[in-house]
Design brief:
Elements: H1 2-20, E1 22-27, E2 38-40, E3 48-49, E4 55-57, E5 67-70, E6 77-79, H2 81-86, E7 90-93, E8 104-105, E9 112-113, E10 121-125, H3 126-132, H4 137-142, E11 148-150, E12 158-161, E13 164-165, E14 169-173, E15 176-177, E16 199-206, H5 210-213, E17 220-226, E18 240-248, E19 253-263, E20 267-278, E21 281-282, E22 295-300, E23 303-308, E24 314-315, E25 320-334, E26 337-348, E27 351-352, H6 354-357, E28 360-361, E29 364-365, E30 367-372, E31 376-387, E32 395-413, E33 418-439, E34 443-464, E35 470-472, E36 479-494, E37 499-515, E38 527-546, E39 549-560, H7 564-568, E40 571-574, E41 577-579, E42 588-601, E43 605-617, E44 620-624, E45 632-635, E46 638-647, E47 650-665, E48 668-682, E49 688-690, E50 698-706, E51 710-719, E52 738-739, E53 745-746, E54 750-762, E55 765-772, E56 792-800
Parallel strand pairs: 1-7, 14-17, 41-46
Antiparallel strand pairs: 1-4, 2-3, 2-5, 5-6, 8-9, 10-16, 11-12, 12-13, 14-15, 16-17, 18-19, 18-56, 19-20, 20-25, 21-24, 22-23, 25-26, 26-31, 27-30, 28-29, 30-32, 31-32, 32-33, 33-34, 34-35, 34-36, 36-37, 37-38, 38-39, 39-42, 40-41, 42-43, 43-47, 44-46, 45-46, 47-48, 48-49, 48-50, 50-51, 51-54, ...
Length: 801
């Protein structure tokens, strides 16, 4: 009897031991599971790898005194079985500032090993966001060091990448195209509709990507992946989440964020809310005097009054507020079938377009009011994922989404009685079906189809402030439908263990039907029908001579079909000019060649460089135009020269990017990123001009110290300038630039020194603090209408539960 009890006891102990030998590996900062991490001992013939839930079986390592846990992009952890047992077999790895390479990427629609992908990609993780504390999604993109951000007002942020901006760049949110038919050639601020506190990961895929995404993906694709709820492994519903408060001094920012998630074995949900309030932004003390704001306009007793600014460094009006909501639900219908529903909503307050308030006329302000109305974005997104290998695919993802975009503009001349309001609403429907199929271990096929429809509604009205009477007025756009349909095929072929080949093709049809109102302007047509077909392709290869050396070569084509903003817009682009519709536009087409190399040395140093050259044919540019035989018309009471978007000649952009990452000592890392580019535009008459979104050289240098509970970073941001003769001819607006000794506009170079730190006080509380622009430099990033913040103290509190 005693012997039987002893045997039973030993069996129970073995069962307990076996149960406890499942290790869970996660990110120390984000608590996300780490798949593919290696768990091994010095004498192990083969490491144990964690699965997609971060689980690893330790049954072969019981009692080991030295166990190593490694994952690319994370510090190597040395521990023992006893220590793991004490921790409950749960361990967090610390992300490093030095990353050998990106392990997976989603910007190509599917997570995959980036070493097999021939295009350059940059990832921004939640750990980067926690340390840097970006104020907006535009500032979040700037963390990459490869994205230049322009702002016309504080409520803005227009990325410029490799000489392209606005509607030549593509945004996706959880796999859904965000670009609409009214994304303009001028600077846009739609990216601020995204909540940086709700981001899980952001990736920038550089170069043309029309094979995967169709129109607009010429310069880059910016892929935003938001937070996702997790299922409960044991079936118990345990709420978890975080609360964040952030304050900064340059604009008296007050930001609050809260998210909570919970789940069972077959369901999970997440709720998120963020609220921001920003006062007028204060610029730095040391810089061009022409940037100062000596006066501003207020409305008093039915009159516009010029008021002396008590602090010329405060940029009035630039204050605004914003709210973001997100709700997600996941249902596991079957072990291989998952249904997801996402809801996003973002709304800003009214906010002044600061650069327009700087304009003067006859010694007085040009405008008594120039505001953007609330910017609204709402998305309902339903997706279905099927993961069960069959003859047609290994995985299938279907996206069905409806987005609603709302924006408006309110302007009135100084002490003019008539106030113009133009409102736009876009309903955007999209359908995507994407498939991935592996053929053996060497061939991965991706294929799919897409259909997009945008319906644009644009209205105008005029308010007489004297009488209060409201009448109809000219709209900014025609009433229009813009659509796109396409299909693609992409193959990743591992020719050998060292060489991968990427090839792809896409066929696409784009169309636009517009209806014009001729009651307010002498437009000689009432309807426009525009059709463009496109065949794009890509051919790339990766060559890895050794595990520490990577070479990428890529040749790809892309296109941008005319949208409603190109074909049908009416607005004042600059003083004395008015833009009118042009229904005869054709698509512009790009061809890009790129070579990239990356080399790691002794797991402590990584150097990388990329060279690229893009040619853009039939480029759409803003130039003088005749409308019904006339070269000018009266717009908002002023005789203005007529201009229109037209197909010009050829645009070229060429440039280089380089980076260095060095581990100086345990926990201490140095990173440097530099970007240089040049570009021009050759018109059909042979005239050569500077291309609009080409930036001067810019870069960053960061020194980072990382430990389990503490991180600190000292860094510099810098940019070259542009002389007057290097500015594009269609952007010589003096309100955007400083003035040189000859009285002509130019863009000065600038640099800032900055400091950020994060301290983990307890497992539940983290404090972040920093100082931006330590030397209080007064500067404007290129083509920005508003100056960047001066010296800015930032404090953030984050609590998790």
């Amino acid at each position: 009897m005693n012997k039987s009890l002893l045997v039973a006891f030993l069996l129970c102990m073995q069962a307990v031991a076996m149960f406890s030998q499942t290790l869970i590996v996660h990110d120390q900062d984000t608590d996300q599971p780490l798949a593919g991490a290696s768990v091994y001992t010095e004498n192990a013939k083969k490491p144990v790898l964690t699965d997609e839930k971060g689980h690893a079986d330790l049954s072969q390592l019981v009692g080991s005194s030295r166990i190593f846990i490694a994952s690319e992009g994370y510090q190597l952890l040395e521990t023992s079985y006893f220590k793991l047992e004490e921790s409950g077999f749960r361990v967090g790895l610390i992300a490093t500032a030095f990353k050998l390479e990106t392990v997976v990427m989603s910007a190509s629609r599917w997570d995959q090993d980036a070493s097999r992908f021939s295009q350059s990609v940059q990832s921004i993780t939640r750990r980067d966001v926690h340390l840097q504390n970006p104020q907006s999604a535009a500032d979040l993109l700037g963390l990459s060091g490869k994205v230049f951000i322009q702002k016309s007002q504080q409520g803005g942020g227009s990325p410029m990448i490799r000489g392209f901006g606005t509607n030549r760049l593509l945004y996706t949110v959880d796999g859904v195209r965000m670009n609409t038919a009214i994304f303009r050639a001028g600077n846009i601020q739609n990216v601020i509709s995204l909540d940086p506190f709700a981001m899980d990961k952001t990736e920038v895929l550089f170069g043309p990507s029309s094979v995967m995404y169709g129109s607009d993906a010429i310069g880059a694709v910016m892929s935003f992946k938001t937070l996702s709820p997790n299922y409960s492994e044991d079936g118990q519903v345990k709420p978890s989440g975080q609360a964040v408060f952030r304050y900064s001094t340059a604009n008296q920012e007050k930001t609050g964020h809260f998210d909570v998630q919970m789940g069972g074995k077959r369901w999970a949900m997440l709720s998120s809310i963020s609220a921001n309030e920003f006062e007028d932004l204060k610029m730095g003390s040391h810089g061009p005097q022409s940037y100062l704001r000596p006066f501003y306009v207020v409305r008093q007793d039915s009159l516009d009054v010029v008021v002396s600014n008590p602090d010329p460094r405060v940029q009035r009006p630039s204050a605004y507020s914003q709210m973001n909501l997100m709700q997600k639900l996941k249902l596991l219908l079957h072990p291989s079938l998952e249904l997801r529903y996402d809801f996003h909503y973002s709304e800003t307050s009214d906010y002044g377009r600061y650069d327009r308030h700087l304009r003067t006329q006859s010694g007085l302000p040009r405008y008594g009011r120039w505001d953007y109305g609330p910017q609204i974005w709402m998305m309902n997104h339903l997706s279905l994922e099927h993961k069960q290998p069959n003859k047609g695919y290994d995985r299938l993802m279907v996206h069905l989404a409806h987005q609603k975009f709302g924006e408006s503009r309110v302007d009135r001349g100084f002490n003019e009685p008539l106030q113009n309001t133009r409102k736009e609403q876009v309903d955007a429907w999209s359908f995507n079906a994407d498939f991935i199929k592996s053929m053996g271990s060497r061939h991965i096929f991706q294929y799919g189809m897409e259909a997009v429809l945008n319906k644009v509604q644009s209205t105008g009205q005029i308010l007489d402030l004297t009488t209060g009477q409201i009448t109809g007025g000219p709209s900014r756009y025609p009433q229009a439908d813009w659509f796109s349909a396409g299909a693609y095929l992409h193959e990743n072929w591992a020719i050998s263990d060292k060489i991968n080949l990427n090839t792809g093709l896409r066929v696409c049809i784009n169309g636009l039907d517009a209806r014009f109102d001729t009651a307010y302007y002498p437009i000689p047509f009432t309807q426009s029908r525009n059709r463009n077909n496109a065949l794009t392709g890509s051919l790339g290869a990766t060559f890895r001579p050794s595990p520490s050396f990577l070479i990428q070569v890529n040749l790809s084509s892309a296109y941008r079909a005319p949208n409603v903003d190109d074909v049908g817009k009416v607005f004042d682009s600059s003083p004395g000019n008015v833009v009118v519709p042009n229904p005869d536009l054709n698509a512009e087409r790009a061809l890009c060649a790129e070579v990239g190399v990356a080399k790691t040395i002794a797991d402590r140093l990584k150097v990388s460089a990329n060279l690229y050259h893009t040619v853009l044919n039939d480029i759409m540019v803003l130039r003088d135009f005749n409308l019904g035989g006339e070269d000018s018309l009266v717009y908002d009471g002023a005789l203005s020269r007529i201009q229109a978007i037209q197909n010009g000649g050829t645009g070229r952009v060429w440039g280089a990017e380089g980076s260095l990452e060095l581990q100086l000592a345990p926990h201490l890392y140095l990173q440097t990123q530099a970007n240089w580019m040049s570009g021009d535009e050759t018109q059909t008459d042979g005239t050569v001009a500077n291309l609009r979104h080409v930036t001067p050289w810019y870069g960053s240098t960061r020194l980072t110290y990382l430990t389990n509970s503490f991180s600190i970073q000292v860094y510099a941001l810098y940019s070259g300038g542009l002389a007057n003769e290097d500015l594009p001819v269609d952007e010589l607006d003096p309100t955007l630039y400083a003035t040189n000794p000859d009285g002509n506009p130019y863009a000065p170079g600038w640099y800032t020194f900055n400091f950020k730190s994060t301290v983990t006080v307890t497992e539940a509380l983290r404090i972040s603090a920093g100082i931006e622009n330590l030397l209080d430099v007064r500067y404007r990033p290129l083509r920005s209408g508003i100056c960047a913040p001066g010296r800015n103290f930032i404090l953030s509190l984050r609590t998790v539960f």
